[in-house]
Amino acid sequence: MSKRNALVQAAKSLLWEQGFEAMSPKKIMRLSGAGQGSLYHHFEGKQDLALIALAEVDAEMRAVVDEIFDREKDPMDRLHDYLNASRDELKGCKLGRLVGEKTVLESNICNIISKYFTTVCAYLKTALEDAKASGDLPPSLDAVAVSKSLQAVIQGGFILARAAGDPQEMRQAQEGAWMMIEGLSSR
After folding, report:
1. What pLDDT score does 187 carry?
2. What is the pLDDT of residue 24?
3. Which residues of the chain fall short of a pLDDT of 50?
4. Which pLDDT does position 1 carry in this prediction?
5. Any idea where the domains of the chain sit in the sequence?
6. Does domain 3-184 have CATH number 1.10.357.10?
7. Nearest-angstrom CA–CA distance, 143 and 131
8. CB–CB of 47/103 below 8 Å?
9. CB neighbours of 3 closer than 8 A, spacing ≥ 6?
10. CA 178, 110, 105 angle in degrees (round to 5)?
């Protein structure tokens, strides 16, 4: 693995486990095995490295949602698969957990996170609209509002699980959201 790639992988890990503010150049270098010269040869600084690392995280997470929301799949299956996808409940969302940091909110880093959430909401909205068109969900359902609610369930489920130290909190949130969708379904 190249030094640059080792630095990016270390940053991805530290961002998820500790957050942006706690991710120090020392920690990055220790975890990556790269020296200070390599860090500053490849990146302008901590934020530059974080942006590149989070762009990779974003691409990885988008690949997962692209598969979940494949338009060839039944719309109700897409919704079910999103809500019941396997997640690391106690570590939190690799992107979402960063928005609690003021530094992230005030930087370009937040743009990556916001665009990811916008993508997921668009996928959810499309699946909900497809389910309405197929007669599985009522025509009166507000696909935009429900898509944001479903995404909030997942992000909130991470918070509940982390706060309680219990992954079951996320699973209950997932199950509850699916029960609500099923309750609206004409299947």
Report:
1. 62
2. 92
3. none
4. 73
5. 3-184
6. yes
7. 10
8. no
9. 32, 34, 38, 42
10. 105
